[in-house]
Amino acid sequence: MRSLKHQMLILLLGSLFLLAVCFLTVLGWYMKDRVVAATIIKTQTDLATCGEIIDKTYPGYWSVQDGNLYKGATKINLNNELVDHLSRLTGDTVTFFLGDTRVATTVLGSNDERVIGTKVSANVARTVLEDGQTFIGEANVVGQWHQSGYAPLRAENGNIIGIFYVGISHAYEKEIITRSLITMAVLGLGLTILIALITWFFIQKVIINPLHNIMLGTRDVATGHVTEKVKVSRVKEIEELEDAFNQMVEQFQTSIEEIDSRADSNGEMPLAEIEDTVIDSSEDIETTDLSLLTSNTSEPEEVSKADTAWSIKEEDLPKGLNETTLEQIIEFLQANRRPLSSEEVAEGVKLTRVTVRRYLEFLEDRGLLISKLKYGIGRPVKLFTPI
């Protein structure tokens, strides 16, 4: 069975992964539209730029001489130097047509050779050669789709004698989109790892560790080894669980005290008191033997009234209280002569708060302590002060 932190981490990572997939899908569609729009603008710009370069580099009119296409005095047919130069400047495929037939091009066929002598598509020929308009859009160029621009080439008399073409392959568009998505995916993966680490630390510190401490405290209660309250977290829900656990501990301690009291009332002494009685008896025997060996010529020390008041014998104690524990609490009170709460005394003598409170109330009834309530945030605290 997976632990809580593993389940929470898997849930978080699954949510982040699903979010990333949706984000990349939407981004892919958005980028596709943006890339298509950008390639159309680039095609128009490249078509106009290449036309200006050709006019300035090769002055003169377009003409047909001996079945070849000329620009001024420069022959265009098989002029690979010209088309390669324009292709390097723009990054596009470049072609010159005489009529509807390619006479110079950078477009390669399946055998990696220039496709000289092939025809332009029928819809482009109709738009450019017959209607005399510039074609901007998708076109099939030797079996591959390109974002293309076709401009008519006019002779001196205005007749259309050929076509000038620039185009951007769809493979180039996909490459741009793919590179962008890969970059976004890498950045998203890095961000996801960072969020996972932060979340792992948060879950461990704020949820898992407090729950683990409460679990250990529950085991102590289950085995009867009650120690003290747990203080685990500042998270509201965990604090509510902490308060419920601490109330359970107090009720458990109270139940133990009641069981001890009932055992005393039935003439049965709890195991803890039996041990204390054995220890006290052994101390009395040792004291008696020592007193027989010492001289009685020394003067007894004067005992103040206050010390006498604090000296309480076993027979003066109510059932459920023992002299050894009382002496331990009295020593702590006399060493810290200031207002103390039952929790502070319990922490100092390493006993439960419920047990210590019974001894403090007994000393208050004897007139050795006075108590008053201290008001603040939350429940008022009862403070005991030695007289």
Automatic annotation (TrEMBL):
Topology with respect to the bilayer: Multi-pass membrane protein
Subcellular location: Cell membrane
Catalysed reactions, as listed in the record: ATP + protein L-histidine = ADP + protein N-phospho-L-histidine
GO molecular function, one term: phosphorelay sensor kinase activity
Residue ranges of every copy of the HAMP domain listed in the record: 205-257
Transmembrane segments: 181-203
Keywords: Cell membrane, Kinase, Membrane, Phosphoprotein, Transferase, Transmembrane, Transmembrane helix
Domain of life: Bacteria
Keyword Transferase: yes
The keyword Membrane appears for this protein: yes
Full protein name: histidine kinase
Top-level taxonomy: Bacteria, Bacillati, Bacillota, Clostridia, Eubacteriales
